[in-house]
Design a protein that fits this description.
Layout (H helix, E strand, L loop, with lengths): L5 E7 L3 E8 L4 E8 L11 E2 L1 H20 L6 E8 L5 E3 L9 E2 L8 H11 L1 H8 L8 H11 L1 H6 L2 E3 L1 H10 L3 E3 H6 L13 H4 L10 E3 L4 E4 L2 H7 L6 E3 L2 E2 H8 L7 E6 L3 E7 L9 E4 L6 E7 L3 H10 L2 H8 L5 H5 L14 E3 L17 E3 L7 H24 L8 E5 L6 H11 L3 E4 L5 H12 L17 E5 L3 H29 L2
Parallel strand pairs: 1-5, 5-13, 9-10, 14-20
Antiparallel strand pairs: 1-2, 2-3, 4-7, 6-8, 11-12, 14-15, 15-17, 16-17, 18-19, 21-22
Length: about 500
């Protein structure tokens, strides 16, 4: 251990946080994880307690990594943090949350504010800024929601920040947001040079209430004495700006060039495809990516792991009981017999819109749907149909991306907790007709955070983003079954037609 140097990365997600400590060769020295809860106080409202769920998790995992590895904190050369994004958290001058954090695109409370802003600026101007209509992933409507609905909180707010900004601020005392998040999720409150736009901020917030934009792997500050006492890190350790969890995870598997793609199987699905230039499509998102000079198309399905969790907690209580009694993991038990069901779940189609939907429909009032149920169907059929529905959603969005002449997809990496389910990954390969790769290192975004931290201090071998690819090793490859792919084409067509056929009825139900 003498002479070795280390880099720490910690990522905070929807339901858990994960951390990793790597050495100068990208070997994993220690890992840590802890869970937290997402609250749903009203329909369409999803929140975290930033003190407990974000900062509390960071401190717990940081101390765990140091204790488990027995590494001297002085040998940790830099720290990177990522977090679910983009959220909206108002804090006071001491960086104390003034309310619970309003979460990313899964939170759809700001529907009226989206309409208000579209009327204020015009659909044409919104399209020019975003390449699409406003959606629930945008922060500007969330800030306006606080202004409209919680004026006392609004008046007390020192900064409106997202999760990665909050963690970095607690570590360093500096409020920063990376260019990737700032110029996309906070659009158009910043100009393209990263400075707040005074005129466009005026109806929403003061320019000084926004964080400073820096590059994701730029040093944002150093660990303060107070943060050192809480995290176990050495005072003065460099801390990078950080980014959102999906961006960090994309870096962890080599999305550093056009054609490289990540599909993140977490509580929700997030897809990032590297592109040469910005591609406008009303149904998708586009941004300037973390890697300088690289753009991306991204897309998000609200329910993936959260959908399987719903099945576990609602229809598979026996599987949960087996796990709690020391038996198999509940998700393993839930898969029993699922592989014996034919593609298409014997004529059962699910729309996974259990929490509304982001791309491609951008409809917070969308609702889940099971079409084709018969007395012959079992809960195993329903569960397989749920897994297939996520694959149909992914494929629907891949087809939209590839419809653009200047867009190519030459390699797909699947990451996140969902890759632990081999049948699910095979279903995705069969539905899409594409090879789905998994990385050898599957811990995800925290691994990307640690690697970006190494680039920030220019440690030998980590000079730039392109240099990181030599540390990324492939795991398993899932190749599509031609016969299954042909079968799934029929079901994909039904899936694509099901939402337009039921949207009006969904909206009636949602408003009851």
């Amino acid at each position: 251990m003498i002479g070795k140097k280390y880099f720490m990365g910690i990522d905070t997600g929807t339901n858990s946080s994960k951390g990793v400590l790597i050495d100068q060769n990208c070997n994993i020295i220690a890992t840590g994880t802890t869970e937290h809860a997402m609250t749903n106080p009203k329909p369409g409202h999803y929140e975290h307690d930033a003190d407990m769920d974000w900062w509390g998790d960071f401190c717990t995992i940081s101390r765990q990594l140091i204790a488990d590895s027995q590494v001297d904190p002085a040998d940790i050369l830099a720290v990177g943090a990522s977090a679910l994004g983009a959220d909206c958290l108002p804090v006071d001058e001491q960086c104390r949350p003034l309310r619970k954090a309003i979460l990313y695109g899964i939170d759809s409370r700001a529907t009226r504010e989206m309409a208000q802003l579209t009327e204020l600026y015009s659909e044409k101007q919104i399209k020019k800024w975003y390449g699409r209509p406003l959606c629930s992933s945008d922060v500007m409507p969330k800030i306006l929601w606080i202004k409209n609905n919680e004026p006392l909180v609004y008046e007390k707010t020192h900064k409106f920040i997202t999760a990665s900004t909050f963690i970095t601020a607690r570590l360093t005392g500096n409020y920063v947001v990376d260019r990737f998040l700032g110029l996309s999720s906070f659009n158009p409150l910043y100009d393209r040079d990263g400075t707040p736009n005074t005129r466009l901020c005026a109806p929403i917030c003061r320019p000084d209430q926004l964080a400073e934009i820096k590059e994701s792997n730029e040093i944002a500050g150093r660990v303060t004495a107070r943060a050192a006492a809480e995290t176990g890190l050495k005072e003065g350790t460099p801390v990078i700006t950080g980014t959102d969890d999906s961006g960090a995870e994309a870096i962890s598997i080599g999305v550093v060039a056009p054609g490289k793609m990540m599909i993140q199987f977490g509580s929700s699905i997030y897809m990032i495809l590297g592109t040469k230039e910005l591609v406008d499509d009303d149904r998708l998102w586009r941004e300037e990516f973390i890697v300088p000079g690289l753009c991306d198309i991204s897309a998000g399905t609200n329910a993936a792991g959260s959908l399987t969790k719903w099945y576990r907690d609602t229809l598979f209580l026996d599987a949960l009981a087996i796990e709690r009694a020391g038996g198999l993991d509940a998700y393993q038990t839930m898969m029993e017999g699922v592989d014996q069901i034919a593609p298409g779940s014997d004529g059962l189609i699910t729309l996974p819109y259990f929490a509304g939907e982001r791309t491609p429909i951008n409809d917070p009032l969308a609702r889940g749907c099971l079409l084709g149920l018969t007395l012959a169907h079992t809960r195993a059929h329903m569960y397989r149909s749920a897994l297939e529905s996520v694959a149909f959603s992914v494929n629907q969005q891949l087809n939209l991306m590839e419809a653009h002449d200047n867009v190519i997809i030459d390699q797909i990496f699947a990451v996140g907790g969902g890759v632990q389910n081999p049948l699910w990954m095979q279903i995705v390969a069969d539905v899409t007709g594409k090879e789905i790769n998994t990385p050898l290192v599957t811990i995800g975004a925290s691994f990307g955070d640690a690697m970006m931290a190494a680039t920030a201090v220019k440690y030998p071998g980590f000079e730039n983003f392109a240099a990181l690819t030599k540390f990324i090793k492939p795991g398993k490859t899932y190749r599509p079954d031609v016969k299954n792919h042909e079968t799934y084409k029929v079901y994909q067509d039904i899936y694509d037609r099901l939402y337009p056929a039921t949207a009006e009825l969904m909206h009636v139900l949602a408003q009851q």
